[in-house]
Amino acid sequence: MEEFPVRLPIKLGQFLKLASLAEHGAEARSLITEGYVYVNGELEMRRTHQLSDGDEVRVEDRFGNGTAIRVVSE
């Protein structure tokens, strides 16, 4: 699994943009509210969810294919 170093704390919506899982804030919001984003295997519906070191963020498409990235502290 790919790791992505960030300065913590960071919100889920911000992380999606920084890790290039979303092109912009509106896309990040859409992915989250439509139920395509999972944190540590659990569906996460809050853009403002605070990520921690070691969290696994997975973004799926409508076909169930996805990309997972592990959050690591800089």
Task: Give your account of this protein's structure.
- The structure is a single chain.
- With 74 residues, the chain is an alpha+beta fold.
- The chain has two helices and seven strands.
- The protein has helices at residues 12-18, 25-33; strands spanning 2-6, 10-11, 37-39, 42-43, 50-51, 56-60, 66-73.
- The strands form two sheets. Strands 1-7-6-3-4 form a five-stranded mixed β-sheet, with no helix packed on it.
- β3 (37-39) and β4 (42-43) form a beta hairpin.
- α1 crosses α2.
- The longest helix has 9 residues, at 25-33.
- It is globular, with a radius of gyration of 11 Å.
Structure summary:
It is built from two helices and seven strands, in the order E-E-H-H-E-E-E-E-E. The protein has helices at residues 12-18, 25-33, and strands at residues 2-6, 10-11, 37-39, 42-43, 50-51, 56-60, 66-73. The chain is globular, with a radius of gyration of 11 Å.
Overall average residue pLDDT:
96
Element pattern in H and E: EEHHEEEEE
- Major sheet summary line: 5 strands, mixed
β content, as a range? 35-45%
Look at the helices and sheets and give the structural class.
alpha+beta
C-alpha-based Rg, rounded: 11 Å
Distance from first to last alpha carbon: 17 Å
Could you say which overall geometry the principal axes of the C-alpha atoms support?
A: globular
Please give the number of β-strands. 7
The stretches of 5 or more residues where confidence is low (pLDDT under 50) are: none
Tally of helical runs: 2
Q: Strands of the biggest beta sheet: in what spatial order?
A: 1-7-6-3-4
Q: Considering DSSP H and I runs of 4 or more, what fraction of the residues is helical?
A: 10-25%
